[in-house]
């Protein structure tokens, strides 16, 4: 359950007209209703109950060059009900049901698990799989891309490893000589295996590896680049663009969504401008991709208005994972209100629960993200109520949509 004290605390005191009675930042009745909605968490990285799990991310970001950490990511920024001792005790008590128990503490019914692979303790119905597809769009020699900086070096080593795994799973030792064969023997079978394994979406962390502008490239040009093995950076980008669109179209055919990281990301070398959701416009405008729902994970911060405009594309969705950790509920609430005034059917709750550190694990991240995400949503809806834009019933309906119903409809769960 979320922390009701947080939700009911009148952190921001508003004066209504001439009255000197302080008004809560969140309508108290609405806060109670929001707290009781069992959520679907659109994006998170739950960790297995068993020790030593490293498959919670294709690109674990714990060994990057230092950056200037935002205030909210500094040690001791948040307080949660968890301690090292309480987590150990709960693991002992719940065994393989420990991750599901963590969801209960967060008020989350279903969590989309963005993981390389699922495991015994992270299974449907409480967890739904979102595997990674980036490795498939970098099939050639990545040493030039890796040489760009130390973060990219670490990332491409991990992508090369994951691609080797996808090749092995496809019964191959090396990528086939021609592009058509690579698509037919590696890319499509990998996506189909993921689907068979319960995947409801494919995740791209591409924003950590390159810009999000995926151009339209014809197959003959892509095949020429593929056969080069060590192409120039510009030629290689064209091949990646082709592969990305091929995978997105295949996801549509298979009934899986595409998840894209859209937010300033971790590390001091992250290409923030490259992650601007406006870079995705030509993708959304590609008639061949209209059957693929593309979810902009993390809500595009700092480009939260650009992403709002993108919601008019029929297959565009977003969630606010990560922003509930990075920003105060007051700040995020303003953004959520803008989105809800525009296309509210495409806005989804998510936490980005992740094992950030030994002290701030996926349990703490998920709990804080859920509590603050609910608080931000409550603030947005309360402001709309007080401005006479919506009635109470519609506020509750919008809360249900964001916390649960929009995701349920999108994935058919
Ligand atoms: Zn994430």
Task: Give the strand line-up of the largest sheet.
Answer: 6-7-8-9-10
Q: How many DSSP E strands? A: 10
The biggest beta sheet reads: 5 strands, parallel
Binned strand content:
5-15%
Name the ligand types. Answer: zinc ion
Low-pLDDT regions: 1-17
- Portion of residues in helices? 40-55%
Evaluate the radius of gyration.
21 Å
Q: What is the H/E string?
A: HEEHEHHEEHHHEHHEHEHEHHEHH
Summing up helix and strand content along with how strands pair, one would put the structural category as alpha/beta
How large is the count of helical segments?
A: 15
Mean pLDDT: 94
Identify the overall geometry.
Answer: globular
Can you offer a commentary on this structure?
This protein has 413 residues and is α/β, with parallel strands linked by helices. Helix content is 44%, strand content 10%. The strands form 3 sheets. A 5-stranded parallel β-sheet has the order 6-7-8-9-10, sandwiched between helices. A 3-stranded parallel β-sheet has the order 3-4-5. It has a two-stranded antiparallel ribbon with strand order 1-2. The longest helix is centred in the last third of the chain and has 25 residues. The N terminus is likely disordered. Zinc ion (ZN) binds next to loops.
